[in-house]
Every structure is written in structure tokens, then in C-alpha cells.
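Per reviewer request, we include the raw input and output of the structure prediction for the construct analysed in the revised manuscript.
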Amino acid sequence: MPLSSIPVDSFLINAHALWSKRWFVLACGDFAKGSYNAMTVGWGSFGIMWNKPFAQVVVRPTRYTFEFMERYDSFTLCAFPQRFRKALEILGSRSGRNCDKVAESGLTPVASRQVASPSFAEADLLIELTKIFSCDFDPERFLDASIEKHYPLKDYHRSYFGEVLAIRGTESYR
């Protein structure tokens, strides 16, 4: 199904299901220079902050994508139909330091329209973002003690807020 531009105020999603059940691919870097990495993400949010539409993602400092998130000023979030689940599992379980996991996934990186970071041809939702804020999780600030169980290696996430610059998707997102 063809993708069309979606104004942010017309963007309709079941955010919980997208993050926790379908996942996103977070891609960051410079597609034109061939310097980028991608990983599957299942934790994040959408909203309004500082009068800007945003998506928030978290990346552990141990992930290869973290280096790209620190180096580049944009990223993309791409959602896929269920038939691409295996590809997302590859992107979420392997490191781009050790292999070309994007090639192994069978997904096709393509140039985004407004940011240097790539999108993916097979996606049914593409969100282009520019970073506007980041901060590190501080375990002393966890108000729910059960959160700590997600960090056996003490590799606490860095949170990134990205301003939504463009959304393209199928009609189901409008």
C-alpha cells in the first residue's frame, strides 16, 4: 500500500500496541555517506513537549546505535507489517559492530526526505525526527524498585527526544 504524508495533527496510532507489540526500527546516521546503524526498539513515547510534537526513544550505551545517536542530529522510526517480524528480530538481537545486520534482515534502507538518517522501503510508517533533548536515566530517581531488574549490567538508557519533522504512512495511520 502506498505511503502518503500525514500531518502530525492527523496522525492516529495505537501507541501502546505499536511500541510493545509491533516494535519500531530506530535508524540513525547519514544514509548518503553509508554511515548508519539501525536497531529494533519497543520502549518509547509520542507527545507534545516544548510546544513541539515529539517521539522519545531510549538507547543503552552498550548498543552500537548509541554511538550514532551521539554523533548525528537526526533519527527515524519505522514500523512494519507483521510479515517483517523476523527482520525486526534480527535488528534487535545482533550488533552492527560485528555484522551487516541490515543486509541480513533483508530490509531495504532508503533516503529519508528531511533528515540524513535512513528510512526503510518496506515500512508502512516512517517518522523523521531531529534530536532536541537527551538525558541519562539515573537509578536513584527510580520510584518503582522493580525498574532496576531491567538493568542487571547497570547499563542505564539514555533518553532522546526527537521533534517530529515528517510522517509518511498508510491510510491506517490517518
